[in-house]
Amino acid sequence: MVLAAGRGARLRPFTDSLPKPLIEVGGRALIAWQLAALRRAGFTDVVVNLSWLGERLRAALGDGRDFGVRLQYSDEGPVALETGGGILNALPLLGPAPFLVVSADIFTDLDFGGLRLEPAALAHLVLVPNPPHHPRGDFGLEGNRVVLGEVRLTYGNVGIYRPEFFAGCRPGRFPLVEPLRRAIADGAVRGQLFTGQWSDVGTFERLAELNGRLAQVQ
């Protein structure tokens, strides 16, 4: 699943008329980079959630054939359901097996195909070193176990989840951190530290920095 329903308020006025996932970095839409990476990793069926300017996103991506994948859409209506609510809403499309969730507004060279979920875990998170805009981080990591510790890393907006992870969640708007904290407290979340290329393209400054970096390697 690629999360693409957000408003992208910090990138206004760009996002007043353009969905944030269609903003270009390195001459290519953010979400196109994600779909290409998913295809290289062997993923062929992808669910994209929609809300703000969702029809523009659907028109740009179509059925996914131009990206080598099959796309389905989870339309949340005019008000996005936040990350947790959006995934819960898409569960009927995602099926009974574990699934990968990636945000459309990150840029990374992580190999999605190398991620694994332990049989006893409900989720597996990719954590990254804290970026300057998020110095306190989100969760700790002890071995491969995600904890609510003092020494924290940042959730990289990439994770594998079992549908059972969302058991007990009610439909509607809610952040992913709520069920994550419950599952972490129960010892059911594993994770890994990723130190490769990773950017959260959330502001004009970070967008410009990433474009500059990509221009140097092209």
Tell me what portion of residues adopts beta-strand conformation: 15-25%
Widest sheet, order of strands:
1-6-11-8-12
CATH fold-type name: Spore Coat Polysaccharide Biosynthesis Protein SpsA, Chain A
CATH C-level category: Alpha Beta
Task: Report, as a whole number of angstroms, the end-to-end distance.
Answer: 28 Å
Query: How are helices and strands ordered from N to C?
Result: EHEEHEHEHEEEEEEHEEH
Largest sheet: 5 strands, mixed
Category by helix and strand content = alpha/beta
Architecture per CATH nomenclature, i.e. the level-2 architecture: Alpha-Beta Complex
Description:
- The chain has helices at 14-17, 30-40, 54-61, 82-94, 177-185, 204-217; strands spanning 2-3, 24-25, 28-29, 45-50, 70-75, 99-103, 106-108, 123-128, 140-142, 145-147, 154-161, 189-193, 198-200.
- With 218 residues, the chain is an alpha/beta fold.
- It has one domain: Spore Coat Polysaccharide Biosynthesis Protein SpsA, Chain A (Alpha-Beta Complex), CATH 3.90.550.10.
- The strands form five sheets. It has a five-stranded mixed sheet, with helices on both faces. The chain has a two-stranded antiparallel ribbon with strand order 2-3.
- A hairpin with a 2-residue loop joins β9 (140-142) and β10.
- The mean pLDDT is 90.
